[in-house]
Fold this sequence. Notes:
- By secondary structure, the protein is of the alpha/beta class.
- 38% of the residues lie in helices and 20% in strands.
- The protein is built from 17 helices and 22 strands.
- Helix 4 (78-95) crosses helix 7 (192-201).
- The two termini are 30 Å apart.
Amino acid sequence: MDVDAVRAWIAEDPDPETARELTELLATATAAPGPDSPDGDAVVSATAELEDRFSGPLAFGTAGLRGALGGGPNRMNRAVVLRTAAGLAAFLAERLDGQPARVVIGYDARHGSAQFARDTAAVVTAAGGKAMLLPSTLPTPVLAFAVRHLDADAGVMVTASHNPPADNGYKVYLGGRVVTGSGRGAQIVPPYDAEIAAHIAAVGPLSEVRVADGGWDVLTNGILEDYLTRVASLVPAGHARSLKIVLTPMHGVGGATTVEALRRAGFTDVHVVPEQAQPDPDFPTVAFPNPEEPGALDLSFELARHVRADLVIANDPDADRCSVAVPDHAAAGGWRQLTGDEVGTLLGEQAAVAAAMVDGGVLANSIVSSRLLAKVAVSHGLEHRTTLTGFKWISRVEGLVFGYEEALGYCVDPGAVRDKDGISAAVRTAFLASQLADRGLTLRDELDRLAVRHGVHATAPLSVRVADLSLIGAAMTRLRSAGPTHLAGSPMAQVADLSQGYEGLPPTDGLLYLSEAGDRVIIRPSGTEPKLKCYLEVIEPVADADALGAARERAAERLSRIRTEIATAVGL
């Protein structure tokens, strides 16, 4: 532990709380032996904590910044944000040959978000740019919309999305004069991430970072009004039908915006889960504020049973993701949460039908998502693209009319929001459900129809959360040297190391296994959480509607076998 480095950081820390936190840790770690000294365990713990906090700067990459709140360079705090904002401002000045950059800034209700957003506005303003701060805590899709709508050169969203309460993050979008074409308004990708990171690293002492006392613009609610008008337009006027919806914003900032978007689209019978309705940065009713996590929708299902709902919709805390559940008497509690691939297929079919009637277009999904969307595209005479994981890649597809990733992310209106948007996805899902209801059908019926036409595509995730990130690297090394040779008894037809590139995609850390039976597994480290993620898919042909049940049973049995095999192979 470099005591001088810790003291130097404390001396320039602009936040009294994190400075105090570090001062107390340092005092414990360096306490001299004596009757009033902390015990040995406390000293060891404080020393280890400081070593971690000062192990290096919090890495800036294609996800921007994301990490635990706290003092020190390897945490999310005001000092790190000020440096990041200064680096971003310098990058924009270089790209724009010194012309004033237009930067729009949003923030959620997490601990520190509002302050981090104001700090960013202050740095951009002091650097000669035009900073535009969203008027209040708002969902990430509103910020993504604002980047394109206001023709901003960059956008910053302060959020950690669905991460635990102790985390926060800093997402960067580029547009305006910096990035044009299909990537305008999308999250950063290489080489922009490395260029911004280099400018951050070049920032000198924090005392030299200029910070304005004011001068930035605080946008009016007109930007939210424009977003809501656009989302409501995704349902033709008068085409919404009666539908009883239960909604949870998962203690995040999407509740009021999603309710209003649904209302304007014609869906007025919306019941918000009261325990999760208001923003709360501590997320008290869920272990992890992620609709994918087991138990996260329990309160939604309880309310849905009480009000006899037709549909459950859940957003994550910054509302860029959307989860959907439907009544199912065969499921425990009478409700079944659809997978991200199922919702992606439903919305993809909806988009394909519309696109085929006009100018066509491209459907896209990430490589770890189901292969079914490609078949949907072909069946409507449309093109399909597979991308790397993350909407920073999906949203850049030229000619995109719909894109999704299995982790509950859907882009249903790429002309307005070049990112995943859980609010517009909720509106489009409700529209589809109401259209089907008009014909006496459900979302489950539509999934059955697509399965009969294209075959059962059964998918399942397998995620392993770790406390020690080195375990993930060790597991990937082990798999590269001695990975599985069969999937559910079928020999491998292909084993691909994605770090070498794959079918025209850029290199990424991951492994792909494809069996002769057509089943597939992809294993990769998460880019935003301490997880090793495995994506399993089994494809089973369907002869006709009468054979669908048996085909699903065969697919489920193989999927279960593969899940056990991969869990053993991963060894975590």
